[in-house]
Amino acid sequence: MEFSEHIKTANVEDVVLRRPFYQPTKGTLCVTGHHLIFSNRGGDSARPFLLLLRNIDAIEKRPSVSSGTITLKCKDLCVLQLDIPGMEECLNIASSIESLSSLETVSEMYPFFYRPPFLSLQDQWGLSSTEQHYAQMKEIHDGWRVSQVNRDYSVSPSYPPAVIVPHSIDDETLVKAARFRQGGRFPVLCYYHRETGTVIMRSSQPLSGANRKRCREDELLLQAVIDGSELGYIIDTRSSQQAQQARMTGGGFESKSCYRGWKRLHRQLEKGKVLQESLIKLVEACGDQSHSVDRWLSKLENSKWLSHVQTALSTAGLVAECVERDGHSVLVHGSEGTDTSLLVSSLAQLILDPDSRTLAGFLGLLEREWVQAGHPFQQRCAHSAYSHVRLRHEAPVFVLLLDCVWQLARQFPLAMGFSEPLLLRLAKEVYASDYGTFLCNSDQERCVTGVKERTHCLFQSLLRANERQHYSNPLYERTELAIWPSIQPPSLQLWKGLFLQWTDDALHLVEAQKVIQNLVSQCHRPLNEKVENTDG
Amino acid sequence: METIVMEHIRLPKVENVRLIDTVTSRRASVGTLYLTATHTIFVENETEILTETWVLHSLVFSVEKQASTTTGCPLLVRCKNFQVLQFVIPQERDCHDVHVSLLHLSRPEHYEELYCFSYNANSDREDRRKAWDFINLKAEYSRMGLPNHLWKLTPANHHYKVSDTYPADLYVPKSATPPVIMGSSKFRSRGRFPTLSYYYKENHAAICRSSQPLSGFSARCLEDEQMLEAIVRSNPRSDFMYVVDTRPKLNAMANRAAGKGYENEDNYSNIKFHFVGIENIHVMRNSLQKMLEERGLAHFPSMSYFLEGLESSGWLKHIKAVVDAGVFITKAIAEEGISVLVHCSDGWDRTAQVCSVASVLLDPYYRTLKGLMVLIERDWVSFGHKFSHRNNHLNGDPKEVSPVIDQFLECVWQLSEQFPCAFEYNERFLITIHHHVYSCQYGNFIGNNQKERTELGLQEKTHSLWTYLWKNRTDYINPLYRPDHSQTQGVLRPLTAPYCFKFWGALYNRFDRGIHPRQSVMEYLMAIREETQQLEEQDHAVRQDRWSDDVEASSMAGQEVCWYRDQQYGRTERVMI
After folding, report:
1. Do B311 and A298 touch (CB under 8 A)?
2. A Gene Ontology MF term for this entry (chain A) (predicted)?
3. N or C: which end of chain B has fewer CB within 10 A?
4. How far is CA A405 from its chain centroid?
C-alpha cells in the first residue's frame, strides 16, 4: 500500500505553528508518509521541525471560512497548534494526519524506513540473549539451566525462545507445567541473589479453575525452586478476592495444600483500563488552567496515579525484603503475567541489584524483563492520554515503571548510573519511535515481522558514546547496597519532568541539571589532574 | 532567674524511660530522662555509641500525658520545630511530675526566663555588642539609594512617640511635612502611617506599607490623603499608585463597622485600590494545625489520605495567595513603574509577608545569605512583627499565635524550588532560621517591636543569630547558585500555577528522617566543592584563610556548634571514649 493514498494535500504554505517554548512561526507544512515537516521560510538557519505522525494521539480541527486550526495532542504530552490558511487545506491535512497516524500494520511503521548513517542493520539487535545472560552468572550454573523448550514459541507464544529454570526440571515437565499456566507462562527465573542464594521468579496465574485443578509438574517446578529451604513467597499482584474470582473464568491461585512451603501474599496493583484512566485524569489535571490549589490537589488525588506509584514501589519493596532480609525466594504473578508482574520484578531488581542500576545494566533489565519477557507494547501503548478512540488494551504500565524508577532515583540521586533524560526519552520512545525495540507484543511477533533484521535497536543506539554521555548521571557513585525506597506519601512526588515537561517550570529544572553537570565536571577536572600529577 | 526556673523542676532525672520512634512506632530505645533548666535530655542506655536527644524547653509546643498502660505512662511532647517525642515513663507519679515540670518550663511568664539570656552569657560583652552591628539597616537603605532627592529619613518616630510598634528611623517622601505625618498617623491603626519598605532605584517606584485607615463608613483625613499624594509625587514617572489591601474584601468591610476599613477611591486622588484576599492569622493557625495532623505519616500511609488532608488544610492555597500578592506588586513596580502602598489591618503580618516576598522577587540581593537576613531584619523585626506573640515565646494568648513568618520562609522555599540556581542560600538556611524564630536562643526575635527590644537590652544581654549564621555560612550555601545566570539576574517571574506549590517535607517532616531522600545532591556537591578547594589550596601551597575576618568568632564556635547541632538533629551520635 502506498502512503500517498492517504495524503490529500502534501504541502501548505503560510502555516503558523504554535508550540511550547517557541514564538509562533510562519512556514511551510509538508505531510509525508511518517512525518509532519514544518520548515521556516526565509533565511532562518533553524532546522525544520519534524513530528513523527505516530506520536499524534488526538487531532482536533476547527475549520472556518477562510482558514482553519488544527490542534495536535501528542503521546509525549506536547500540544501543538497549526493555523492553516484555506478551509479545504485544513480539512485535507487533518484527514491525512488522522489516517496516517493510526496505521497499524507493523511493517509499514517508520522504524522499517529509518536508516541513520551512524547505525548499520548488520549490528547486533538487542543487547544480550538469555544464553549470554546465563553465561555471565557462573554462580547459578549448578542449580539452574537454560531451557530451549520454547524455541518455536509453541509452549508459550509470549515467552522468548530460551528461559532459565531449575536444573532438576526437564523440558517435558516444563511443557506440562506451561499448560497449567495462562498463556503458557510457567515460572522462570528473573533474578538470582548472590548473598542469600535465593531468587525472584515470575509467571502467569495457574489455571486451577472453579474445581481446583492441580498440576503435579507445576508443583514440582516450584518445589525445586525452594528445594532445601523452608519457605518461599508467592506475591500475587491481585487482591485475594480478585484471585478467587479469577477461578470462575478458569484462572486461579496456588492453594496452600498443593504448594507446600509456599506462602501467598496479595498486593493489589491496578492495571489495564483503571491505569489508563488514571493517566488520562492526571494529564487532564496537569493541563487544567484554573488557578485553584484545592482543585489541583483534588484532581491529583482523584487521578490516583501517585497511589499506583506507591503500591508498585511498596510491593517491589516487599519482594526485595523477602529476598534480601528474610532470605526467601519469591514468585511474582498476577493474571497474564505480562504487566504488573514485570513491573514488580524489575523494580525489585533495581532495589537489590547494583548491576541493574548502571546505564547498560538498566537497559539490559528493560530488554530482559519487558521486551523479551513479552510485555505487549503495541497493545498497551497504541494510545496515550489524549486519545478519543475507544480504549482496547491500552495501559501505561511501562510509564508507571519509569515513574517508579524516577522516584527511586530522586530518593537515591547518586545510586543510578543513568539520568532523568533517559527515563524521559524512554517514555517518549515507547509510544512513538524511530527504532524497532518497542514494536510488536512479543519476541515471536518481532521475529515474524522481521523487526530484528529490518529495524534498528534503541538500546544499542542509546549506548553509543555521545548518547551514553548525555544519559549518564554525573553524580553516579556505585553502591553495592540495596536501595530501600520510602513509600511514605511525603516521599513520593509528581514527576514534573514528564507530566509538566512542556511548562516553564520544567525549563528551570533542566537549567539546574546543566549547572549540576558543569559543577561536577569542573570539580572533577582538577581532581583528575591532581591524580595524574601524583602518578607522574 | 535561674533559681525560679529550677523551682519548676520537680524531678531532675527518671530512669528506664522508653523513647518510641513515632514514624515506625516499632523501635523503642531505653534510657534516662533528665530535666535541666534549659533542656530535656534523653540519654540512651547501653549502646556502643552514646545517643542523646536534646530538646530545648522553648521549643516545646505541647506536653500531653496519655492514659497509663501496663508498660508505663506515655508522655507526648510536640515541638514547634515539628519534632514529636513519645516517652513512656514507668511510674505514673514520675510521669505526672515530668509533665507538670515541662509545662512550667516550656511556658515562661517573663522575657528574662528565656534561654537567650543564659545562653553563653559569659562571652566578652564588647564582642557581643559588636556582633549586632553585622546587620545594619542604615546601610541597607543607603544600598537602595536612600536618602535621595525623593525620599528622606524622618525623625518623627524618635523615642517611638508617633507609633510604639514602628522603628525609630523611617523613610518618607521628601514632600511629607511633619504635620502631614502626624495627621496621617492619627488616621491609621496603631499610628502606623504609610512609610517606605523598598525603593526600586531602577525606576523610582517604591513599596510602602502602613496599617488600615480609620475610615469607618465615611471618615476622611486630609493629611492622610496628602501623604498618599506625596508618595505618588515621589515617583516622577507615574501619576497614580496602587493601594493593595492584603485582606479578603469581606474582612476589610467588616472592619469599617469598627471605625477602621480601607481607602475610599473617591477621597484619594490618583489611587487604584486592590484586594488580594490573604486570610487572617486565625485561619492560618488552624490551617497549619490541620496540615500537621494529616501529614500522612506512619499510621495512614495512604497517598489519597495525604493529598486529601493537604487539600482540606488549605495550607498551600494560603502560600499561593501570598506569592500571588508578591507577584502582583513586583509587576506593578518593575514592569509598570507604579508605586504600591500595602496594608492589612495592623500592617505587621500579611503586610510584612507580601512586602518581603515582593522584595525577594524584585532584588537579587535578597536572594543572598546576607540579603535575606537584612530583609527579615527590615520588614519583620524593625517594622514590629510580633514575634513573641506569634511564635508563642511566653505563656500568653493562644489566639495571638500564628505561623506568619513561617509562611514567608515557605514562600521563599517554594520559589527556590522553582529557581534552583537563583538563591545563594539553601533549604537548610531557611529551616535554621525557622528553628531559631522559635528557639529563643538568640535575641533577634524576642519581643514584639523595636521599643520592647531596646528596653530589654537584648543587644547587651544576648547574642545575634545573624553573626552565628554568617560564621557557619559554608553550611548554608546553595552549590547551584549562579548569580550571573540569566534566570537569576534581575526580577524573578515565577509561575504560580497550583502545581508549582509543594508540601515542604524537609521542614514539616524534619525529624522523620526515614521519609527524606536517602542521598542528598546538595551535600554531594558541597563535598566535592570542598575537596576541589582543598586540592587547589595544596597545589598553590597557599593557605587561603577565607574566614580570617572571623577569627574572633571561632572562639565561640567550637562548643556552640556542637550545641546547636544537638538541637538541629535531635539525636546525636557521638563515640563514647
Report:
1. yes
2. protein phosphatase binding
3. C
4. 11
